[in-house]
Structure to design on (339 residues):
C-alpha cells in the first residue's frame, strides 16, 4: 500500500433522531430551517432528494422493524455491531464550532484546538479553555460525538452507519455504556451483537421545570451469561484473523471522520442552527495562538496503552478460558479489533 494513501471507512448512511424543519423567514428576511427533535430513529442514505433532505432508507428500516418486532416508522432499537475494541475508535468525541455553513474551530483533547477561520487555508493551533472561551461560554462551541456502527441486517457491507449528537446526556450515556460492556467482557466489544436504543428521560431544567428528553444508549440485549457465551465464540473466531486487519485500528479516530464542505454545511444547519451568522473572530486572551516553544509539558509523559492492553488480555483469558487455543499461553495472545 502506498504510504500516502490511508484506509477510510465508507459511510453508508446516517442514524438520526432529528431533522430540519419547514423553511421560515427571519426578521431580516433570511430563510432558515430550524432543526426538530424526534422520539424515534430514522435511517437515511447519503443521497438527497429535491428538497435537499437526506433520503430515508425505508428498505433498511423495514428490515430492522421485522427483525425486532417494531413499527417501521417508530424505531427505538437498532441492532448494531462495533468494529473496534477501542472506545474512541467507535465513538469519536471532540469539541467544535460550526458557523456560516462550515467548521471554524475544533479540539480533540480540550487543551488545544485548531482555528480554521474564514477560509480554512491557514489553520492556527490555539489553546482551548472552555471556561474562558467566549464561544464555549455562550454555547456556540459544543461537544460532539460520532458513533460508527455496522447494522447486521443492512443489505450492504463494507462501510458504517454514523450516529451524530451534540447532547451531553447522550455522549455521557454512550461512553458509560461502552465502558461498562467492555469491563464485563474484559476488553472485547468488537463483533458483539449490541443495540442502539432511544429512551425517554425526565430531567429538571435550570429554571426548575420538568421536561422529557430522549437519550441514546448502547446496550447488550441479553443477560451476562449470554454475553459471556457470545464473547467466548468471538474470541475463538478472532484467532484466525489476518493481522493486516489491525491497520485500521492503528489510525487516529479523526481520520475516519473527515468532512466535505457539504457535510460541514449539513452539520451546521442541524446541530448549530442560526438565524443570522455569528461573529467569527479568534478567541481572545486565554485562548491565544500557541507559539513554537509550546510543544510539551514537562513531566506529562503518557503511559503506553499497550501495557494495560496486555494485562487486560491476560485477565480475559483467565475469565474466559474456553477461548484459548490448545497449547496457547495467556501471555502473548493475539488481539484484533475487527472481526
Amino acid at each position: 500500500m502506498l504510504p500516502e494513501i490511508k484506509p477510510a471507512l465508507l459511510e453508508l448512511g446516517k442514524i438520526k433522531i432529528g431533522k430540519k424543519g419547514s423553511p421560515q423567514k427571519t426578521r431580516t428576511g433570511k430563510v432558515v430551517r430550524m432543526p426538530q427533535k424526534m422520539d424515534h430513529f430514522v435511517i437515511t442514505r447519503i443521497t438527497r432528494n429535491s428538497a435537499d433532505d437526506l433520503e430515508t432508507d425505508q428498505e433498511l428500516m423495514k428490515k430492522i422493524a421485522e427483525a425486532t418486532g417494531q413499527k417501521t416508522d417508530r424505531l427505538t432499537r437498532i441492532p448494531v455491531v462495533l468494529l473496534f475494541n477501542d472506545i474512541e475508535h467507535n465513538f469519536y468525541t471532540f469539541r467544535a464550532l460550526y458557523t456560516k455553513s462550515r467548521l471554524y474551530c475544533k479540539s480533540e483533547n480540550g487543551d488545544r484546538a485548531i482555528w480554521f477561520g474564514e477560509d480554512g487555508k491557514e489553520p492556527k493551533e490555539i489553546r482551548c479553555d472552555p471556561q474562558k472561551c467566549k464561544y464555549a461560554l455562550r454555547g456556540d462551541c459544543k461537544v460532539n460525538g460520532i458513533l460508527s456502527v455496522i447494522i447486521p441486517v443492512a443489505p450492504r457491507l463494507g462501510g458504517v452507519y454514523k450516529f451524530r449528537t451534540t447532547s451531553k446526556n447522550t455522549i455521557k450515556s454512550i461512553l458509560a455504556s461502552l465502558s461498562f460492556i467492555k469491563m464485563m467482557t474484559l476488553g472485547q466489544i468488537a463483533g458483539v451483537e449490541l443495540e442502539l436504543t432511544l429512551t425517554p428521560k425526565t430531567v429538571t431544567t435550570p429554571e426548575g421545570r420538568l421536561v422529557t428528553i430522549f437519550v441514546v444508549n448502547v446496550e447488550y440485549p441479553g443477560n451476562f451469561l449470554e454475553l459471556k457465551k457470545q464473547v467466548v465464540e468471538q474470541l475463538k473466531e478472532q484467532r484466525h484473523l489476518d493481522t493486516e486487519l489491525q491497520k485500521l485500528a492503528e489510525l487516529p479516530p479523526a481520520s475516519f471522520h473527515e468532512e466535505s464542505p457539504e457535510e460541514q454545511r449539513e452539520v451546521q444547519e442541524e446541530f448549530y442552527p442560526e438565524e443570522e451568522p455569528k461573529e467569527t473572530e479568534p478567541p481572545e486572551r486565554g485562548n491565544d495562538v500557541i507559539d513554537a516553544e509550546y510543544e510539551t509539558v514537562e513531566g506529562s509523559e503518557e503511559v503506553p496503552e499497550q501495557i494495560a492492553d496486555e494485562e487486560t488480555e491476560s485477565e480475559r483469558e483467565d475469565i474466559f478460558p474456553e477461548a484459548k487455543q490448545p497449547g496457547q499461553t495467556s501471555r502473548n495472545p493475539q488481539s484484533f479489533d475487527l472481526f
In short: The two ends are 21 Å apart (CA to CA).
